[in-house]
Amino acid sequence: MRAVTHDALLSALRDAVGERHCLTDAALRASYETDWTRRFTGPAIAVVRPGSTDEVAAVLRECTAAGVGVVPQGGNTGLVGGSVPRDGEVVLSLLRLSDVGGLDADAGEVTVGAGATLAAVQSAARRTGWDVGVDLGARDSATIGGMIATNAGGVNVLRHGPMRRQLLGFEAVLADGTVLRRMPGMPKDNTGYDLGGLLAGSEGTLAVITAAHLRLVPQLARRAVAVAGFASALSAVTVAARARRELGSILALELFTDDGMELVLRHARIGAPFAERMPFYLLLEAGSDEDDPTDDLATLLEDVGAGAAAAIANDDAGRHRLWQLRERHTEAVNAEGVPHKLDVSVPLARYAEMVDRAPQAVAAVDSAARTIVYGHVGDGNVHVNVLGPAPEDEAVDDAVLGLVLELGGSVSAEHGIGVAKVDWLVRDRGGAAVAAMRAIKRAWDPAGILNPGVLFARDS
Ligand code: FAD
Ligand code: MLT
Ligand code: ZN
User: Fold this and answer.
1) Looking at the CA of 329, which ligand is closest?
2) Could you tell me the pTM of the whole model?
3) Is residue 188 over pLDDT 60?
4) Structurally, what CATH architecture does the domain formed by 337-417 represent?
5) CATH of 6-93, one of 3.30.43.10, 3.90.930.50, 3.40.140.10, 3.20.20.10
6) Which among 53, 150, 421 is the best mutation to test ligand 1's pocket, defined by most ligand atoms within 8 Å of the CB?
7) 383: Cβ below 6 Å to ligand 2?
């Protein structure tokens, strides 16, 4: 590593990406320095916005030479603090690599730049009868690169799997500027290690993803959404399990509580789906290319006695209205304060117990905290949101993550480890697995400049 002053590095970065794409002014850097939740924030020495893979490689070469950390950033919608600087790194924004091109309508595949938003790729796919297998509420800002880096899940994992499963090919740049390219990639491709699969979920610690080739899924002509109320978490989970078993057309199974719905109704200024209020709600979405799934959903809800506490819709506006009740939880919680967001998964058999015990675990360490629970019940994924504790106070995080391990779950289901959960990686995976992960990190990024402090603690 050569000794390089910050001034020399900044000048090299300006040469690499052009003066106007190297932001050093504090006001211009600000939106890149704080995460979506406002819990995580830190200073960057600069934000660089490369416009090509070659420019990404040049930035990484300069930062490696200077020994300065790099934080890759897409839409900055990540929820574990991995997308923002901690301590004077360079933020490398991929937003200018936003090409959506090369859609093969026969194969159902598309090549996109890492900075393309999910919404942009969805609309290109839908114009040709295809769709993206992963969908999530941050679709207008979340980028394909960020979604691969976090192995994003979302609402359709039970049908199509997470982002890793959509990835057929990739282009990425190592810390030393070497470009790895496997494009377009094949649906069947067992030639050596699956490097793209490794990048999925690597959270910007192994390489900077610059482009991806994705498989698409058929767009479904007929969809129906239902929301039903339940007296207990267990009864909602039992109905979700039955829906999954009996309805081949199920696309999404989501759980939320009356506390959460109350927040959403107030924040989004929308009405309740039906007059009767219940402690727990299940949202079910079914989709098919042929038969309208409305009757299947209605029959299931009738069978389980959902009665008056149920609403169903199959037109665009009605489905959107019901989806808002679940999808707008994130912003409604954020509007109340800076949340501690604990995204975890547990075996389905322990799901209801997790939903019931999480608020108790929080109350045991912070009686003033407010806990809002929702999640993707079809995948065993629970989102525990806690309002009240200061951002740096980790007592409630520890209480919830401790409960997850007791129930045999995973401390990160779909958001990643980021900086929020670095202390829990070893506790969840064990020393041998984390040593194997660190060996991979050393091999790909020997100088440790890619997202320092994310996934692994800095000092160990
Ligand atoms: P960023 O936030 O910019 O970055 C996330 C991580 O990826 C960081 O560690 C960053 O360093 C790294 N990274 C970003 N781009 C690259 C790249 N090109 N190369 C290498 N590393 C990179 N997540 C879910 O899984 N399911 C959901 O249902 C879901 N719903 C959400 C709803 C809302 C309203 C919000 C705000 C967030 C939600 N999220 C969800 C979280 C978030 O949208 C995802 O984690 C998403 O994948 C992040 O994409 P991004 O482009 O914003 O990445
Ligand atoms: C969701 O499922 O709504 C997202 O993962 C975001 C969140 O956890 O709030
Ligand atoms: Zn989620």
Assistant:
1) 2
2) 0.98
3) yes
4) 2-Layer Sandwich (3.30)
5) 3.30.43.10
6) 150
7) yes
